[in-house]
């Protein structure tokens, strides 16, 4: 997705959060961990790497919700499309994972994708294409 810097970012969590997910946009409940953390599955990232980091919800937050919010992205057009590809793991205890879009002229977040716990205990991948004529966050 197009921000003021580069045309696309590869985001992993090996050293910290990625450029698209600033620290202050990480709501309480999310933790950065790997498969060796002793917190239960998943025991590796989507590539099978046990020491690679990913974001996970802490067990204390399971009864409520927690959000991740991106930086502000610039409007999309034919030249600058926005595709967000992400890997996700939904466990037996999870509720629903949702992706929302908030345009800067709107106060509300529009749900553009969601999945519930039917694909259990495995990594899945999804790509979302976003169109917006104004600045937005995901």
TrEMBL record:
SUPFAM superfamilies: Concanavalin A-like lectins/glucanases
Domain MAM: 9-138
Assigned GO CC terms: membrane
Membrane-spanning parts: none
Record Gene3D superfamilies: 2.60.120.200
The name this protein goes by in its record: MALR1 protein
The organism of origin for this protein: Mohoua ochrocephala
The gene coding this protein: Malrd1_1
């Amino acid at each position: 997705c197009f921000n003021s810097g580069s045309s696309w970012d590869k985001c992993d969590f090996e050293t910290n959060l990625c450029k698209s997910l600033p620290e202050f946009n990480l709501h309480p409940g999310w933790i950065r961990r790997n498969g060796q953390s002793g917190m239960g599955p998943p025991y590796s990232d989507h590539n099978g790497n046990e020491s690679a980091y990913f974001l996970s919800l802490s067990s204390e937050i399971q009864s409520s919700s927690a959000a991740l919010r991106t930086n502000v992205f610039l409007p999309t057009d034919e030249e600058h499309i926005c595709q967000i590809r992400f890997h996700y793991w939904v466990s037996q205890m999870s509720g629903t994972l949702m992706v929302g879009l908030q345009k800067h002229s709107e106060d509300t977040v529009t749900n553009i994708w969601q999945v519930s716990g039917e694909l259990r205990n495995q990594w899945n991948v999804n790509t979302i294409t976003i169109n917006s004529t104004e600045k937005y966050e995901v």
